[in-house]
């Protein structure tokens, strides 16, 4: 149990911050967008289970190794034609070894990202999250304040929590610029394919 | 729903419950769920981590306005009751009043009319238009029934002879106070301006009474009763060190908030009709017009133009 609890900490500290990178990798390499969340979840399960036995030295290279294997497994199982070649995957994995911006994101940008995430919520849901998180009201007080019942507050929060977690994977900001960088490099390699 | 979605939803439900506070048995159930599979565990950790990170929202230093675009009508209506109660208390000073004799009597006002009553003990009652009251006063009891409409009470407290207002199934007992009661059928609203009142359900005497204090608003519908601790517009603090007043709003329309801010702001703020209905909650320094503007733009996507002495807000 103790061991598992320390794996929890490691997972939160070392693996979860890689999520934006993981999602970018999956979106580029998996055609079916509906399966991306499944693949991410499956990769998390595999790396967590592995870490219970032996903690890998580098969470990042281990996670991407898992992801590559996962995609290969799935492709064989689904008998789908791979969209990208393996060398593509290698290159992406290599690209993701660049200094990870996710870790150096300043607190201020983090707040901006969170506020963008709040925009994704419905008005009611956003109000509940803001009252709970910013105004530090208890769920009971939020219910009273908004004139809704406590169960509803709990449901709004559950929904808000999921969307906030989803928005950790920020497509608009950093990743867009990273994707551009990647595309630029690709187009530099093959001058024939024009990008933007 | 895919398996991943199902697990994520369960994880979110547990996290929201945990955020509320888990009882002993709930915690056991949660731990059993979490330990059942790695999939459960990582889904939970992922959401929890994002939720903890959301604490950074607090670090903005500025209060975030709470947009509530679709408040329930009756809540929105009642929010103005507190402010109206304040105004009415001032009215007591100027309105000519009629003395009410002991015994039973019925007093009504027509639409648009107002009437002020004073009782022998010094208690004052103000009836707004379209209101019917029945008073029952004797040496031992001080009781008023409100059949319809709205009345403000400024009660001379007498512990041995509590002042009671009956409104449908609600019995409101004064504990040294100023308050208003309005009734429409079985819907009753009580806004307390000063002191405290106790509210009992006559039909369900075993339910705990609701105690409401200054600035509280109580809304009762059938057997439900809601107490709101947030005042509509209230000056929270007049600090001695020269810091500006902190104005607190709960779901007030932007037009009303701006009206309040304009009392303090150097620049006059104008709100276009299309933005006036945006509902705002939160606390603002009365003189921090700049901060307020930034929050509005950030939180509501309004357009703000300004010149030397005016600020224009539109949607």
Main β-sheet description of chain B: 12 strands, mixed
Tally of DSSP helical segments of chain B: 6
Binned, the helix content of chain A reads over 70%
From the spread of the alpha carbons, the general shape of chain B counts as: flat
In percent terms, what proportion of residues of chain A is strand? under 5%
Low-confidence stretches of chain A: 81-105, 170-184, 191-196
- Summed over residues and divided by their number, the pLDDT of chain A gives a mean of 74
Summarize the structure in words.
The complex is a heterodimer of chains A (196) and B (315). Chain A has helices at 2-15, 19-29, 36-53, 59-78, 86-95, 101-104, 107-119, 123-133, 139-146, 150-166, 174-189. Chain A is mainly alpha-helical and 196 residues long. Chain A is elongated. Chain B is flat. In chain B, α2 (24-36) crosses α3 (38-53). The longest helix of chain B is centred in the first third of the chain and has 22 residues, at 73-94. Residues 61-95 and 230-244 of chain B have low confidence and may be disordered. Chain B contains 6 helices and 18 strands. In chain B, β5 (132-137) and β6 (142-154) form a beta hairpin. Chain B has helices at 3-20, 24-36, 38-53, 73-94, 254-262, 289-300; strands at 97-99, 103-108, 115-118, 124-127, 132-137, 142-154, 163-167, 170-184, 187-201, 210-213, 217-221, 224-228, 233-235, 246-253, 268-271, 279-285, 303-306, 310-314. By secondary structure, chain B is of the alpha+beta class. In chain B, 29% of the residues lie in helices and 37% in strands. Classes of the chains: A mainly alpha (196), B alpha+beta (315). At the A-B interface, α1, α3, α7, α8 and α9 of A face α1, α3 and β12 of B.
Labels describing this entry:
heterodimer, A: 196 residues, mainly alpha, elongated, disordered C terminus, B: 315 residues, alpha+beta, 12-stranded mixed β-sheet, 3-stranded antiparallel β-sheet, 6 helices, 29% helix
